Amino acid sequence: TFAGPIAFLKSAPALQHLPGADVPEVAFAGRSNVGKSSLLNALTNRNSLARTSNTPGRTQELNFFDVGEPLAFRLVDMPGYGFAKAPKDVVKKWRFLVNDFLRGRDVLKRTLVLIDARHGLKDVDREIMEMLDKAAVSYRLVLTKADKIKPTELDKVVAATAEEARKRPAAHPDIIATSSETGLGIAELRAAVIEAIG
Ligand code: GTP
Ligand code: MG
């Protein structure tokens, strides 16, 4: 499916702007700057489909991308959470937007919760996991920027992250380590998206 056409559909700054819930969706969540938009680009093999930036807070709306012709599924790039430098009310707005979307979207098949491989799970990540567990929304933890640490370090963070994931009712037990730079884990992630879509 990823070999077919992929196109930006629309940006939703608020829930009333969501596209119709007519096809399965997979969403990208995670802290600001963790690499959500970059991973979406790597996954779809498009350099600048989703806008990326070194400055946290780049993605400010829910962005929907149509995959396949005929339309097979949608990928959803989302604003980051836990970005302390943005004005408080803005952070709050993103948080409500993301949380309400994740909790209330019945076509959402899986949420990919991205974690920076250098840092591992943080309390803000655990908060979103808690929210997803409570709402029984299926999610999978994906480590990003794996190129920035040594393989031995990566093995450790994969093991530690998997240990936490296995205690979480709505989490997939297996972790995927990725790098949008080197392509590590991208094929595996594509397979995981296809599997989630069902
Ligand atoms: P927000 O939209 O602000 O929440 O950020 P985001 O999670 O979408 O992150 P984005 O994809 O914009 O990437 C943030 C920065 O990290 C950019 O400078 C990317 O080039 C860099 N980056 C993303 N993924 C990787 C990766 O796998 N390896 C390396 N080395 N850098 C990466
Ligand atoms: Mg982004």
From TrEMBL:
Alphabetized UniProt keyword annotations: Cell cycle, Cell division, GTP-binding, Magnesium, Metal-binding, Nucleotide-binding, Septation
Single GO MF descriptor: metal ion binding
Alphabetical GO biological process terms: division septum assembly
Cofactor or coenzyme needed: Mg(2+)
Ranges where the EngB-type G domain occurs: 22-198
InterPro entries tied to this protein: G_ENGB_dom, GTP-bd, GTP-bd_ribosome_bio_YsxC, P-loop_NTPase, Small_GTP-bd
Gene Ontology CC entries for this record: cytosol
SUPFAM superfamilies reported for this sequence: P-loop containing nucleoside triphosphate hydrolases (SSF52540)
One family name in Pfam for this protein: MMR_HSR1
Similarity comment text for this entry: Belongs to the TRAFAC class TrmE-Era-EngA-EngB-Septin-like GTPase superfamily. EngB GTPase family.
Purpose of the protein: Necessary for normal cell division and for the maintenance of normal septation.
PANTHER family: ENGB-TYPE G DOMAIN-CONTAINING PROTEIN, MSS1/TRME-RELATED GTP-BINDING PROTEIN
Protein name in UniProt: Probable GTP-binding protein EngB
Organism of origin: Sphingomonas panacisoli
